[in-house]
Structures are given as structure tokens and as C-alpha cells.
Design brief:
Length: 837
């Protein structure tokens, strides 16, 4: 290896001398030179680059416009294979603050009208006081064509190879020095050699002793001989060692070798092969002579096997006993808790009884009498020995009865040495009372859970039965009256009556579905309380608007008022609060007498937390009332009083259960007082945060129904609905209401129609949500992104997705409103009027 490096260095030096001579002659003879100038700021950034006119002309350029004063004007003309070299040399010279590195290089450049030619580039660097470059001034000289281009390239490659060779040689020298310093200091035996011939060997002193060699020369013979005759504990190691002859890797193993002097050593070895920087595969092996350890291990193995079992029990049991000599001798191994073995037992065992005598005495002193027969059977010597020969540990649980206290205990048995014919075993005692009681508790909890599951199953069955009844009742009316209507098409009065009853049954079925969905959302945790600022007077006004028509139809007096309310502007979930009050008021109307009365009173009470106000909502009616027994179940799902069932009043039996759960979600309370034939009172107590003293907005004069309908006549609506039946129903209802309807079967069609439609072609879009190709949300977003006036057209969701989050999602997509199916023409007209007027 040293001869190869020397030859390479001599060749490189010879070529360097030849090249330098040629280059010197070239510089002396040439007159084709050009100057360049580059400046750097204090941060080391290039601030100015100037190419002289002679520099430009050298490459065939006449003006600064053709060859700007920029770094890239020059650098892009350099031969691609030379760019990395040029940039590396320039940067090295620039960053060498000692100025030891001189920028003097040759490279090829392309002229404007000529091909690539060789140039020499030399520069001087002027630096600031801190060493940073300030100005670089250089001269470029065209090399004569007589200069041998191949010689330049060969010289450059030779210099590169010489540098790489020197670096590898230095790395190898340092690596070898480092390895030898470690090997010489190590207390372990260490060997290294070159593969595959096991030459260039090195052994430290410890290795020389083991192999019986006086020096390295003798070791080169002794080591291969000893390894060839070695005995390996694992036969697969030999295969691995053979593989390491030709590939990197490592292996640890044990073997036994005998040196030439007859000394046998048990060795624990680690062997690894790696490639050194010169491409040679080197094997490194370290080992430890464990001969003495092997002798001690043989002695300790037998004791270890015995102690392993004993210590295993001792780690978990407070009292451990050793039974030896076929049960004739009992020895106390460990007893750290006097509560496990009482003093009487310890005193008795000190007399060295047999196993049978000791267990009989223990039984009479400590074992509950009801467990004596089982204790005798399970702890009999022959039984124990048979069990522990079949399995690692034999356990038995019994009740200990001592000084009036009964606790569960466990005895565990295990053989001391399974691999021998010895019958010696250990016996451990442990108090497991807490575990058994906990297990009993878990069993009780499981039984309770099972009972709850069975009750839930019963409730599910009752729910399905109730739902089946309550759904079939309005469905029976709808189907029955539809058949009657079809049979009496020629009798308008009967037909109108049938249709009215179908409408009522449909409304009841819709209310049932809404209640079931609300209950499901509450129990699944999907219903959330969303608090926003609201005004109590506006709440009363809206409730009056909703309840007044049904109350008037039944000739009921409706009274809404407030008492001692100082804070009308509050922060609350208006939707859920309205739902609670309407559920109660709706029952008050439904179960009332003709000419009766229903009232809602809001009363602000004192002692509210800071920044909050306490309110009691008192709802009274003069209806049929409830029995004391039914009042206990009124807030349970599907609870309906017998009077309601008998009277034929329709209801889902879920309204009050939903009301109670919403009140609970609002951290409030609800109570009921009722008397049959007299009436009912509900008290709902809630606490809300105060939102300030903002006054309720004054109601604006509303347009009359006739004015609204007149304003909506002839409005063009794009109906987006994929279901043909729903599309036909909606189109017919809207057409009869005076609207001009165009339809789209999918969101994609709707977007395309609005993209092509002239401004004003459509006044409003009714958008379904769930459609096959593009849903209503995405269609709305794309409509809002149009670059036409149609991007701002009002869009109302008309969908079966009826939950609050569906409404929020529709508004977030850019819609102006949300209507839940089935279509209510009155609500639909109001929504359209709100969007257009």
C-alpha cells in the first residue's frame, strides 16, 4: 500500500512540474488579458461586480447591455464540468482569512462567436481589519491553443487522486494508532488481523497469554491452530464466522480452546469484521476468560434452582415454609407478619413436627370449621405432591377464623427442584381477603350490570312497542283516510274532511319523529346548549305568536306576564328555553277544557350569583290534571296518563322527558303540582348570566299577508331536488302559490344553470342537501364563487337534515336560511319573503 501511494505522489509531482512549465511560458507569451473587479459589504454579501471592456471583448461582447455587470454573466459561460471546481476554488480563497489560499486556476469558457477555450484566472483579495473580504481584483488570460488540454485535465485528476490518497493514508494511520492504543490498555484479550489470510495480526498481552504465544510472530501460527480445534457451544456460530470472512457483521459466542502448552480456557467472545479506509476487511475480536466462572456456575446452578422457587413465593407471601425429607421435617423459611402465623403455630412448629402434624394443628387453631373437610382433602401430603408434579404451583383458598375474625387465605405449593427426584417443596401463606371481597364486589357489580342490561332490554322492547303503536296510529289514519278520499273523489265535503284528518295525522307523526330524534340526540350527547344574548320580552312575544292560534281555537284565555324582572337582557339558549316552555304550554292547551285558562309567568328571584339572575317560569292551566301516581312518572319516556289515553288525546309520551333533560342540561330544576279535574302547575327554575341593560328592539310594522303574497307573485325560483317525488310536490305547491319554477336534479346542474343564467333570471334558490353527484353545501360554495351577479342570489336549504348543526352547516356554506322537510307552505312563504323582501 505504501509503494502504491509513493508512485502516485511521484506521478502527480512530475505532471505538476510539466504543467507549471507550460503555463508559465503561456503567461509570458500571451497578450490576451482582461480585468475584473468585485466588491463585498461588511456582511460578506457581493455589492458590486464590474467586468472591464477588455473582459467583455475577450468573450466576443461589445457592450454592457450584452454582458451586464453581474456574476451570472460570467459564470453561465463556464464549461458545465468546470463550474463546481471554479466555484469551490473561489469560495475557498475568499473564506481563507490567512490569505494562504491563492486564487489561481484554469478553466474553460465559451465565447459569443467561438466554442470553449482555456483561460487562466488569477485574483488578489483586499481584506478589512477583521479579515472579511472587501475587494477582489482579477485578471483573466487566454491560454494559447498549443497548451495540451489533456495534460491540464490529467494534472487536475492527478492532484485530486493525490489528495484523496494522502487523506486515506492519514486516516488509516490514525485508525491503526487508535485501535492499538485501546488494545494495549484493555484487560480483556483482544486480537485483530486482516482477512482472508489472517496476516497483519496483532494481539495484546492478555490474548498472548491465553493462546500461549510469546510474541506476534508466534501468535500468527498459534491462533489459527487453536481456533481450528476450538469447541463451540453453538454450532451455528461456525457458519456465522465463515460469513464474516466476506461481509461486515458481528457475532458473540462462547467456545473452549486449548493452547500448545495444554492449557484449556473457556472464552466469552465478541467478533466483528469491518472494512478499513483502504478497502481491506479487518477482523476484531475481544474475549474474556470465564474458566473460573464456569466452575462456580456449575456449583451455583443447583442452589439457584432451589432458591428460585423459594424466593418466588417469598416475594409474594409473608410466610413461607420448607417441607423436606418426604414430609417428615418442616422448616420456617420466612415469616414477616405475625398476623399470618399466630404465635401458637410458630411455637408448635419449633418442636419439629411432621407436615401432617403441623397442618392438623394449624387447621384446629386457624381454619373455619365449615372448611375443615375440604382443607384436609386439599392439603393432604400425597395430594399436594401429585398436584405440584403436574403444574408449577398448586393453590388452595380457605377461610381463616382467628380471634373472632374471618378472612380469606390462600396456600400455595411448589416443588423446590422440578428436574430432580426430590420431593422437597415450599408452602406459602397469603391473606387474600381484599382480593376475594373485591372479586365478590365485581361479581355483584356484574350482576347489577346484567340486571341493568336486562332492564334496558325490557325498556328497549317497551320503546319499540310504544313506537310501533304510536307510529301505526297516525299511519293508520293517513292510509285509511287516503283510501276513503280516493273512494269519494266526487264528494268535496267528505274529501276535504278526509284531507284535514290526514294533515292532522301527518303533523302528529312528524311531532313523534322529532321527539324521538331529540331524545336520541340528548342521550347520545349530541344536543348542546348554545348560549347567546336574548331578551325575555321578545321570548314572550314569540311564544304568544306560536301558542295563541291553538289556544284561541280551543277558546282558552292565554296570559303571559313578568313579575319583579329587573334584568330582561340575558345570555341563554333561546331555542332550548323556548322548546321547554312550548312543550309545557302545548300540553296545557292539549289537555285543557274549552273555555279554560293557561298562563306563563316569569319571576326574577333574589340571591343570584354575581353577574347572574335567577328566574322561575311558572306555567299554570285549568286542564284535566294528573293523579299523584302519574306525577311520579311524568318525566319518564313514553309516560301517558290513563285519562289522556282514554280521552283519545294524541301525544308521543316523550315531550316531558325531553323537557326534563333539557332543563337538567341547563343546570335548572323542574317541579310539577297537579290535581285531577282542577289543573296543573309547572315551576321551572333557571339561572342565566346577565347580558346588560340593552332594551328590546321595537317591533317594526309588518306587511299584511296580502301584501306579502302580492310581492312574491311571479318570482323565479330554481328548485334543486334529486328526488322526483319531492320535486313534484314542491313544484306543485310553489306553482300554485304563484311562483315560477325551474328545476335541477343535482348540485352540478344547479351550478351550471346559474353560471350560464343572465343576471335576474332567478330570484332565489331552494337547495336540497343530500344529492348524488354534488351535495347542497358544495353547490352553494361554488355558486358563491361565481364571477357573476348570481353569486349573491339568496339560497335557502330545504332538506330532511333538520338538526341544529345541519342549520349551522348550511349557514356556514353560504346559505341564507334553512327549512326542514316535510314542506310547510306557511313557513316556506315566510322564509322566501324574509330572503326576498
Amino acid at each position: 500500500m505504501d509503494e502504491k501511494n509513493t508512485s502516485l505522489q511521484e506521478m502527480s509531482q512530475e505532471k505538476s512540474l510539466q504543467a507549471n512549465e507550460v503555463v508559465s511560458n503561456e503567461l509570458l507569451a500571451t497578450a490576451a488579458t482582461a480585468l475584473w473587479h468585485i466588491e463585498y459589504d461588511e456582511k460578506g454579501e457581493m455589492s458590486k461586480c464590474i467586468w472591464s471592456s477588455s473582459f467583455r471583448k475577450m468573450f466576443g461582447y461589445d457592450s454592457q447591455a450584452d454582458f451586464p455587470d453581474e456574476w451570472d454573466s460570467w459564470f453561465k459561460l463556464i464549461y458545465p464540468a468546470d463550474k463546481e471546481y471554479v466555484e469551490k476554488e473561489y469560495t475557498a480563497a475568499l473564506q481563507d482569512y490567512s490569505d494562504a489560499k491563492i486564487y489561481d486556476i484554469e478553466y474553460r469558457m465559451r465565447g459569443k462567436q467561438s466554442g470553449y477555450r482555456w483561460y487562466r484566472d488569477v485574483a488578489h483579495i483586499t481584506r478589512r481589519a477583521d479579515g472579511t473580504p472587501s475587494v477582489v481584483e482579477g485578471v483573466v488570460v487566454l491560454q494559447k491553443s498549443s497548451v495540451n488540454e489533456q495534460l491540464r485535465l490529467a494534472l487536475r485528476e492527478a492532484e485530486k487522486a493525490n489528495r484523496e490518497s494522502q487523506a486515506k493514508t492519514e486516516m488509516l494511520r490514525r485508525t491503526e494508532e487508535f485501535n492499538r492504543s485501546i488494545l494495549d490498555k484493555s484487560a480483556c484479550g483482544m486480537v485483530s488481523y486482516r482477512l482472508p489470510n489472517h496476516d497483519n495480526m496483532y494481539l495484546n498481552a492478555a490474548a498472548l497469554r491465553v493462546f500461549g504465544a510469546r510474541d506476534i510472530a508466534e501468535a500468527e501460527t498459534e491462533v489459527p491452530r487453536a481456533l481450528k480445534a476450538a469447541v463451540f457451544n453453538d454450532p451455528t456460530v461456525v457458519k456465522k464466522l465463515i460469513e464474516l470472512q466476506t461481509q461486515d457483521g458481528s457475532v458473540d459466542f462462547e467456545c473452549q480452546i486449548t493452547n500448545s502448552k495444554g492449557r484449556t480456557s473457556n472464552l466469552l467472545l465478541y467478533s466483528e469484521t469491518v472494512m478499513n479506509p483502504l478497502g481491506e476487511r479487518i477482523a476484531y475480536t475481544t474475549f474474556l476468560d470465564i474458566s473460573e466462572n464456569k466452575q462456580l456456575q456449575a456449583i451455583n446452578d443447583r442452589l439457584s434452582k432451589q432458591n428460585h422457587v423459594i424466593n418466588g413465593l417469598a416475594s409474594e407471601y409473608s410466610s413461607v415454609w420448607l417441607i423436606e425429607d418426604e414430609g417428615k421435617f418442616v422448616r420456617r423459611y420466612k415469616d414477616t407478619n405475625a398476623n399470618i402465623f399466630v404465635k401458637e403455630i410458630i411455637s408448635f412448629v419449633e418442636k419439629e413436627p411432621s407436615y401432617a402434624e403441623g397442618m392438623e394443628y394449624y387447621k384446629r387453631v386457624c381454619v373455619h370449621e365449615d372448611d375443615w373437610a375440604e382443607f384436609d382433602k386439599k392439603t393432604r401430603y400425597e395430594t399436594v405432591l401429585a398436584e405440584i408434579r403436574k403444574k408449577p404451583v398448586y393453590n388452595f383458598v380457605y377461610r381463616r377464623h382467628y380471634q373472632g375474625k374471618i378472612e380469606y387465605f390462600q396456600i400455595s405449593y411448589a416443588l423446590v427442584d422440578k428436574n430432580s427426584d426430590s420431593s422437597n417443596f415450599v408452602m406459602g401463606f397469603k391473606n387474600i381477603n381484599d382480593l376475594v371481597l373485591a372479586d365478590h364486589k365485581r361479581s355483584e357489580e356484574l350482576a347489577a350490570a346484567l340486571a341493568a342490561a336486562e332492564q334496558a332490554n325490557i325498556a328497549k322492547t317497551q320503546f319499540l312497542n310504544s313506537m310501533s303503536h304510536d307510529i301505526r296510529t297516525p299511519m293508520n289514519a293517513i292510509i285509511g283516510f287516503t283510501s276513503l278520499a280516493a273512494a269519494h273523489m266526487d264528494k268535496p265535503e267528505l274529501l276535504q274532511d278526509y284531507l284535514q284528518k290526514i294533515s292532522v295525522a301527518g303533523e302528529h307523526l312528524l311531532a313523534l319523529i322529532n321527539d324521538v330524534l331529540d331524545m336520541s340526540r340528548i342521550e347520545s350527547g349530541k344536543m348542546k346548549i348554545v348560549e347567546k344574548p336574548m331578551h325575555l320580552s321578545e321570548l314572550l312575544q314569540e311564544i304568544r305568536t306560536i301558542i295563541q292560534p291553538t289556544a284561541s281555537a280551543k277558546q282558552l284565555a292565554l296570559v303571559l306576564d313578568t313579575v319583579d324582572v329587573e334584568h330582561e337582557h340575558i345570555i341563554a339558549d333561546k331555542l332550548r328555553l323556548t322548546q321547554v316552555l312550548l312543550n309545557i304550554l302545548g300540553n296545557g292547551v292539549k289537555f285543557n277544557k274549552v273555555g279554560g285558562m293557561i298562563s306563563l309567568q316569569i319571576k326574577e328571584e333574589r340571591n343570584a350569583p354575581q353577574g347572574c339572575a335567577n328566574y322561575k317560569f311558572i306555567i299554570r292551566d285549568t286542564g284535566i290534571g294528573m293523579s299523584a301516581e302519574f306525577q311520579k312518572h311524568i318525566f319518564e319516556s313514553f309516560s301517558r296518563a290513563e285519562t289522556a289515553t282514554v280521552s283519545g288525546i294524541q301525544g308521543t309520551g316523550l315531550g316531558m322527558a325531553i323537557t326534563k333533560k333539557i332543563v337538567d342540561m341547563m343546570n335548572g330544576t323542574i317541579a310539577v303540582k297537579s290535581k285531577l279535574g282542577v289543573g296543573t302547575e309547572f315551576d321551572v327554575c333557571l339561572t342565566f348570566r346577565i347580558a346588560g341593560e340593552k332594551k328590546a328592539a321595537k317591533p317594526q310594522p309588518a306587511q299584511t299577508k296580502a301584501e306579502i303574497e302580492a310581492a312574491l307573485q311571479g318570482k323565479h325560483i330554481l328548485l334543486v331536488e334529486d328526488n322526483k317525488l319531492n320535486q313534484e310536490i314542491a313544484q306543485t305547491i310553489l306553482t300554485e302559490a304563484g311562483f315560477v319554477i325551474d328545476t335541477a336534479d343535482d348540485g352540478t346542474v344547479a351550478v351550471e344553470k346559474l353560471r350560464q343564467a343572465a343576471a335576474g333570471r332567478y330570484d332565489l334558490v331552494l337547495m336540497d342537501i343530500q344529492m348524488p353527484l354534488m351535495d347542497g353545501y358544495e353547490a352553494t360554495r361554488r355558486i358563491r364563487a361565481l364571477n357573476t351577479e348570481n353569486a349573491s342570489i339568496p339560497i335557502i336549504a330545504m332538506t330532511a337534515n333538520a338538526f341544529d348543526e345541519d342549520k349551522e352547516k348550511a349557514l356556514a356554506a353560504g346559505m341564507n336560511g334553512h327549512l326542514a322537510k316535510p314542506i310547510n307552505i306557511c313557513l316556506l312563504k315566510k322564509a322566501i319573503a324574509k330572503a326576498l323582501l
